[in-house]
Amino acid sequence: MADAPRPSAAPLPYDVVRSRRRTLVLHVLPGGRLEVRAPLRMADRRIAEFVESKRGWVVKVLARTDRDPGRVIWREPGPSHGDAVPLRGLPHRVALAPQAGRRDIACALLPPSDDAPPILRVPVSDDPASAGTRLLAFYRSDLEARVAAMLPGAVGRCGAIPSAIGYRSLRSRWGSCARDGRIVLNVLCAALPDDLVEYVLCHELCHLRHLDHSRAFWNALARALPDAQARRHALRGWYLR
Question: Do residues 144 and 190 share a domain?
């Protein structure tokens, strides 16, 4: 007797954002939502086939984020009271507090109680977006201070000096660099422990000498950070979703 045909898996639901790009890319966003970035004129059928080809990867990503949500880095919309957000590699509990006057706009670390996670006070106004805006500002300030302390040593090991360092909320990258010597670091790197921030910084500094991922680039990074491969593997455990 012939085996009964196995039912096919249900199609993965996803949103499509079209732009003047040439390639397809798939993102897993907060809550497990899938978003495909596609060229303007690409056929829907090709997009659906691309998403289906990534089913195994999507399942693995969702499984990892379910096991360790503390490494899924916060993104819009802003955090809610009691949420856990990572900072310097450790989870911090968000405490939303009504803004006490016009100058009360900066987040602050509060001492934890017992074995509870550290508390991050986030002042909020009547604007629903204020919590997210102020958390990003806090992330940026924290990251700038940490990078400033790391930069002299990183420059010496990588043999490259950036013309400027910028900080932005990037959607899917930890950092980027430009031919004019500028590098940009994702403000959400503030969530990472120091060794991974240093990896991202050295990665971009090495790109100033090698604007690709050639063997020469990876060799330069390995000379700057002998354990670069281990750090790269550890960075994959953090998710910009």
Answer: yes
Edge-to-edge strands, sheet with 164-168:
164-168, 182-186, 175-177
* CB contact at 8 A, 72 and 30: yes
**Helix ranges (DSSP H) in the chain:** 44-53, 55-67, 130-158, 194-207, 215-224, 228-235
> pLDDT of 100-138, one tens digit each?
887 888 888 887 777 778 899 998 887 777 888 899 999
Residues 166 and 223 in one domain: yes
Lookup result for tokens 């987040």: 107
Strand arrangement of the beta sheet that strand 119-124 belongs to = 84-87, 90-98, 119-124, 108-110
pTM, whole model, 2 decimals? 0.72
Which residue segment(s) compose the domain that 219 sits in? 139-235
Q: Which residue has the tokens 């659906």?
A: 48
CA 56 and chain centroid, separation: 21
